[in-house]
Amino acid sequence: MTTMTRTVLVTGAAGFIGSHLVDSLLDKRMKVIGIDNLSAGKEDFLADAKLNDRFEFHVLDLLKDDLTELLRGVDTVYHLAANPDVRSGSTDTRPHFDQNVLATYLLLESCRKARVPKFIFASTSTVYGEVDVMPTPEDYGPLLPISIYGASKLACEAIVSAYSHQYGMRSVIFRFANVVGPRSTHNVLHDFIRKLHENPQELEILGAAPGTSKSYIHVSDTVNGIMTGSEKAEGLVEVYNIGSRDWTFVKDIANIVVDKMGLKGTKFKWTGGVNGGGWVGDVRKMLLSSKKLEKIGWVPELTSSEAVELATMDILSE
Ligand SMILES: NC(=O)c1ccc[n+]([C@@H]2O[C@H](COP(=O)([O-])OP(=O)(O)OC[C@H]3O[C@@H](n4cnc5c(N)ncnc54)[C@H](O)[C@@H]3O)[C@@H](O)[C@H]2O)c1
């Protein structure tokens, strides 16, 4: 019996999560087309993938290039390309609407024309805003994001849902907690490590002690979650949270980084923050319920602290 090789397309393929997803899809014997405009991603992250003859990579920009022809015959699109910088939205709003909302709309239009049957969207815990139910399930509402980034991602979710209902394209939306691991390029761990290299005696931390409490998830658990959810989702539009079962405080993260860098006696200097968060638009507490994904077979292997520890060691060994 011969099995057909499925062709999938990943946007943001040279990014942090996208490049790991490409590796996993290739492991599952799929033909993978990766696209990225390399604004944040690095082709080096695709070094292994490029050795595989089931992989092809195109430097394309979702805002400038029409993907319709490339999408013909594609079974599933994994849309990860975005401006993922939550903090930047407080000063510069436009990139989130262009890189997230407009880019997603243009991609969906191309998918519709090319009759792509399935669309996977990388969304975020920030769509929930400040919540009063924790762990927060997928059906929590109303969804009132407090950052421009979260708002732009929620707008994308709405457009994805409408395309599914109007044109029959099945979709799966994943709301990630804070993802950490190898090939990350910007997050709290990078900030702390950079600052501590500059001044090992004192670490300036945005916010007030002990800082926000959030769930961290390792990229390996995240990609396993995407693979499980996208294969097993049954509805026309399914939404899954992907987060570890616990959270960690910023202070604990600072302690982990100081410890892994082998420093002693580092003083923490808290800036005071804004509304209990580190910056304008920073959610104070985030813990997702991932029971829906766990019920169909996904198990997060690492806790928040374990994910942070492993990711810190990875960055330090780079
Ligand atoms: N990292 C996290 O903690 C986290 C949490 C929640 C959601 N997400 C979402 O997951 C996805 C991947 O995030 P990441 O952390 O890997 O970010 P990343 O910046 O590493 O990856 C995004 C990739 O998209 C590319 N890109 C951006 N605009 C593009 C465009 N117009 N055309 C083509 N390519 C473009 C960038 O070059 C980059 O390689 C994003 O949608 C992000 O919003 C990430």
Given this structure, which CATH class of the largest domain is correct? Alpha Beta
Principal-axes geometry comes out as globular
Q: What structural class do the secondary elements suggest?
A: alpha/beta
In DSSP terms, counting alpha (H) and pi (I) runs of 4 or more, how many helices? 9
Brief summary of the model shown:
The chain has nine helices and 14 strands.
Written description of the protein model:
The chain is an alpha/beta fold and 318 residues long. The chain folds into two domains: 7-180 and 218-245 and 290-295, NAD(P)-binding Rossmann-like Domain (Rossmann fold, 3-Layer(aba) Sandwich); 188-213 and 246-286 and 302-317, Alpha-Beta Complex (UDP-galactose 4-epimerase, domain 1), CATH 3.90.25. It is 35% helix and 19% strand. It is built from nine helices and 14 strands. It has helices at 16-27, 68-71, 94-113, 148-167, 188-198, 219-232, 250-260, 291-295, 304-317; strands at residues 7-11, 31-36, 55-59, 76-79, 118-124, 170-176, 178-180, 202-205, 213-214, 216-218, 237-242, 248-249, 267-270, 285-286. It has a seven-stranded parallel beta sheet with strand order 3-2-1-4-5-6-11, sandwiched between helices. It has a three-stranded mixed beta sheet with strand order 12-9-14. Strands 7-10 form a two-stranded parallel sheet. Helix 3 packs parallel to helix 4 (148-167). The radius of gyration is 19 Å and the shape is globular. The model has no long low-confidence stretch (mean pLDDT 95). The protein binds nicotinamide-adenine-dinucleotide. Residues 11-12, 14-18, 36-41, 61-63, 80-82, 84, 99, 103, 122, 124, 176, 178-179, 185 line the site of nicotinamide-adenine-dinucleotide.
